[in-house]
Amino acid sequence: MQGEIFKVIKYRKLNKTEKNSRYFNMKARCGKEYQDRNPRYYGTYMCDEWLTRKEEYYKWLDENYYEVEGEGQMDVDKDILQHGNKQYHPDLCLIVPHSINTFFENVEVGKTSIKQSLITKKYKVKIYDSGKWIISNNISTYNDALDVYCDIKQGILLSKSKALKNEIPEKVYMALMNTDVKDLNSKYYLTRG
Questions:
Q1: Helix 54-64 vs helix 16-29: angle between axes, to the nearest 10 degrees?
Q2: Which residues contact 107 (CB under 8 A, 6 or more apart)?
Q3: pTM exceeding the 0.85 threshold for the entire prediction
Q4: Which residues, including other chains, have CB under 8 Å from residue 189's CB and lie 6 or more apart?
Q5: What is the Cβ-side half-sphere exposure of residue 143, based on CA atoms within 13 angstroms?
Q6: Which residue from 80, 94, 108, 97 is spatially nearest to 179, judged by alpha carbons?
Q7: pLDDT per residue over 79-136, tens digit each?
């Protein structure tokens, strides 16, 4: 008979200084000065509940904050549950390991992820993950290269998610497992014709 594996989430209450720091960092990301320096945050804002009553944000942190050993920093993410979301809101945010947050910051294909050879006209996909490059060469079309990019990114996400399964809340795990990288990149496909 096999023993059961129990999920152990390391919930922790942050102290007042930690909560204040997280609150004011989030508030700064909603400001014009920060958004001018970081254009991907344009339009980001806090819900009225958190903006006018930071104690509500602190309560949300108390109910949701946990730590994952070896992950270091834990982040408040607003994009995983609803890709492209601009609002920090208790129903739209998750606490995630920093490595997951940065993965989602780069989930969409970048300008250097797919390159075409000037000589062969073939495409190359190049993705950096966990200290190494994953490269796929000699791909015939841009759309095929984007498929390869999405497949690699999906594989990385599934691997990261499964590795964290017993250390993250079920809601976070399911959000990661239900992410469709190809859907998030659908706007980059070239139309045929």
A1: 110
A2: 153, 157, 179, 181, 184, 185
A3: yes
A4: 143, 146
A5: 6
A6: 80
A7: 999 999 999 999 999 999 999 999 999 999 988 999 999 999 999 999 999 899 999 9
